[in-house]
Design brief:
By secondary structure, the protein is α/β, with parallel strands linked by helices. Helices cover 39% and strands 15% of the residues. This is CDP-glycerol:poly(Glycerophosphate) glycerophosphotransferase.
Length: 418
């Protein structure tokens, strides 16, 4: 317990919440030692049980959400008991599905139910996307741990993780294609055989959205227009420790933009061309003070809005005519759609110095327009509006290195594992 940590949790949760946080941490550690060790010693793996865990406070989303939903839609829950470890259990009180249970893990105070450790230890399959939160640290013999992960992009590992000598704590992890077997085996200190070039379950949402563009944009924003572009910058400022990006200073939260006046100029161009620009804040980004007030063709989308409107993020990505990103894995994912990409690289040099990249020359792996300022962004939007696409051949070549395509990513994974 440090002074800075106490300040952080007091700010987030209030004084009472801060106290509950530290009590919850104590209880959780005790539960892990008692429940976990006893279960491993006296319990055994239940062959028809699988557990899913996503990032805390982001329940039933991303790759675990996509894969478990596929299993349910295709009747696997008749044979398997599916346990979801969630932060907000009350959100699922009305979700009644045969053989599917929701158990509290990592709630807003950091507390996990004793049942989370029991199920985490006895499941035959433990699937997670960010980390297991040690909920299966004392797992029973015979469990298969699958790291579904949350994307392979251009960013190198945080310095703190580079200095770790521990080996990966999973049996399999997913990567999109051949080039990432090398980058991830180095990051996770594991043999290439542990990495499955099967892509991510969420790709099915992106490639086969349940609604068309008009329906999704109408539901989210009440908007109809000619084209839509989504901008998904990676985070710079966050509360994560050991992140060199925190040292990067930008004049605006959006890289490549100097001030609100430049955003207004972009908005004016969007209005003339009837294009909607959707800006998605990274979940880890802090200090985000942008607002859409005063803009006609710029909209901000949040996890909360997507949740309320029942639209999956990767379905939204899948109906957009173009993507703006930078060093994020979403740019790699978007290659599967074969649509125009714009890489916003205003802080490329400082990012290379502070965080670094997994490729010696990451620009060689970016088959799209390079954007450094607002003028470049308007050029990208102009090309999109006119239908000018000069990077189609480069995308096709890069696709072979970065992806292993299939019609259904969930189906391929299920047939391999189950």
């Amino acid at each position: 317990m440090t002074k800075d940590a106490v300040k952080k949790y007091t700010k987030q949760l209030g004084i009472g919440g801060m106290i509950l946080h530290y009590i919850s941490r104590f209880l959780t550690k005790a539960e892990m030692q008692i429940i976990g060790k006893m279960t491993r010693r006296f319990g055994k793996v239940k062959k028809n049980r699988m557990v899913f865990k996503n990032r805390e406070m982001m329940d039933y989303t991303d790759n675990p959400g996509a894969f478990s939903q596929y299993l349910i839609d295709n009747g696997y829950n008749k044979e398997y008991e599916i346990i979801w470890l969630v932060s907000q259990k009350k959100k699922f009180r009305n979700k009644k599905i045969k053989n599917v249970k929701f158990v509290t893990a990592e709630n807003k105070y950091g507390w996990s139910s004793p049942l989370a450790y029991y199920y985490g230890a006895t499941a035959s399959f433990f699937f997670y996307s960010h980390n297991s939160a040690e909920l299966n640290r004392y797992r029973c013999e015979g469990q298969t741990v699958v790291n579904l992960w949350h994307g392979c992009g251009y960013k190198d590992a945080e310095q703190a993780r580079k200095n770790q000598n521990s080996r990966a704590d999973f049996d399999y992890a997913l990567v999109p294609g051949p080039v990432f077997v090398k980058t991830k085996s180095r990051l996770w200190n594991c043999a290439p055989g542990h990495l499955l070039m099967m892509g991510y379950p969420r790709y099915d949402w992106m490639l086969h959205p349940s609604m068309n563009q008009e329906e999704i944009l109408e539901r989210l924003f009440g908007w109809k227009g000619r084209k839509a572009v989504i901008w998904m910058p990676t985070f710079r400022k966050s509360e994560l420790g050991g992140c060199a990006e925190n040292e990067i200073e930008l004049p605006c939260q959006l890289p490549g933009i100097r001030d609100e006046e430049e955003l207004k100029q972009i908005d004016a161009y969007l209005r003339r061309e009837q294009i909607l620009l959707i800006i998605k804040k990274h979940p880890l980004q802090t200090g985000w003070d942008q607002e859409e007030q005063g803009f006609t063709n710029i909209r901000y989308v949040s996890e909360d809005l997507l949740d309320r409107k029942e639209v999956r993020l990767y379905e939204l990505i899948g109906v957009c005519d173009g993507l703006l990103s930078d060093y994020s894995s979403v740019a790699v994912d978007y290659l599967l759609l074969n649509r125009p990409l714009g890489y916003v690289l205003a802080d490329y040099e400082i990012y290379k110095e502070k965080r670094g990249f997994v490729f010696d020359d990451p620009l060689e792996y970016m088959p799209g327009e390079k954007i450094y300022n607002a003028e470049d962004m308007i050029k990208y939007l102009k090309h999109l509006s006119e239908g000018t696409d000069t990077y189609m051949q480069e995308r096709a070549q890069m696709l072979l290195q970065m992806h292993n395509k299939t019609e259904s990513y969930c189906k391929r994974l299920a047939e391999y594992l189950l």
